[in-house]
Amino acid sequence: MITIRTQEDQGFVETQGVKRDCWIDARNVDAEDLRRLEKEFGIAAELLTDIMDADEQARIEKEDDYTALIVRLPVYEESADPAFYTLPLGIILFGDKVVTICQRSSEALDDILRNRIRGFSVRNKSAFVLNLLGRGAFTFLKHLKELNKRTNIIKDELQRSIKNNELIQLLSIQKSLVYFTTSITTNELLLEKLQKSPFMRFREEEKELLEDVVTENKQAIEMANIYSSILTGTMDAFASVISNNLNIVMKRLTIVSIVLMIPTLVYSFFGMNVALPFAASWWASAGITAVSLIAALFGAVFLNIERKRKK
């Protein structure tokens, strides 16, 4: 869906036609929207294909009529697996308008639409890019904190009882952290290019904003790496716990098997089709059972003493 907005004193207002310094916001785009973006706004089909590629990396390129940037933004979708992931956002800067293209809606774009960024203006194209990148880094930090909170809740549940569902949730969070780390790193490379790029010129106050965005982006990278390391250590610890619990269970089953093998051995001797002592005695069956149980009891006591001695 393509929505054209102009910025007024009270905020963004939807409009039907393209006006000067308007924001053309394309989200949840389909094939018809892509054809319109190509024909009506003159955006190259190759660039639109790259923006629609979920694995496209952040970059900047200059065309005759516009400057195009691709950045990575975090997306939360509860029904998806994982629920937290990233998608490329295309920012097309024309002389008189700005076009943003994204496969889904992102909280960073919603924050701009709701005027949550102080002093935000569509008229200043370079500041528009920096504010959007800064809001993206802020959203990354917000989602990282939410992922860490979910990790702690799952860890508490796993300490009470290790279940497959909780382990799968941890794997999903780990996947999200990998996506976040990769995307934030590519955004950092884009920010480094912006500092040196001849395609965009920044005023003195915009350079300070650029440095703030770089700092916030680095903080997001460090936080993602820390959370990822903690989660990896947690997963390894629980894997060791599961392996240790399995060893304990197998040890107990082995002891039970050995104890049960003793009466089985006694009954096997007296079950042979040959002449055996006490075969004609009336108490033979009860006596053999008693001997088997006593032998099994002694075996169990002996194995228990050996187990405690090795501890």
Structural category: alpha+beta
Mean pLDDT: 84
Q: Describe the largest sheet.
A: 7 strands, mixed
Order of helices and strands: EEEHHEEEEHHHHH
Give a count of the beta strands, DSSP E runs of length 2 or more. 7
As laid out across the biggest beta sheet, the strand order is 2-1-3-7-6-5-4
**CATH class descriptor name of the largest domain:** Alpha Beta
Distance from N terminus to C terminus (CA atoms, Å) equals 68 Å
Number of domains: 2
The low-confidence runs, each spanning 5 or more residues with pLDDT under 50, are: none
Task: Explain what you see.
- By secondary structure, this protein is of the alpha+beta class.
- The chain has two domains: 2-243, CorA soluble domain-like (Beta Polymerase, domain 2); 251-310.
- It has helices spanning 31-41, 45-52, 107-113, 125-160, 164-196, 204-270, 284-310, and strands at 2-8, 11-15, 22-27, 59-62, 67-76, 84-93, 97-102.
- Strand 4 and strand 5 form a beta hairpin.
- Helix 4 runs parallel beside helix 6 (204-270).
- The protein is rod-shaped.
- 24% of the residues are buried.
- The model has no long low-confidence stretch (mean pLDDT 84).
Brief overview:
Helices cover about 60% and strands about 15% of the residues. With about 300 residues, it is of the alpha+beta class. It is rod-shaped, with a radius of gyration of 34 Å.
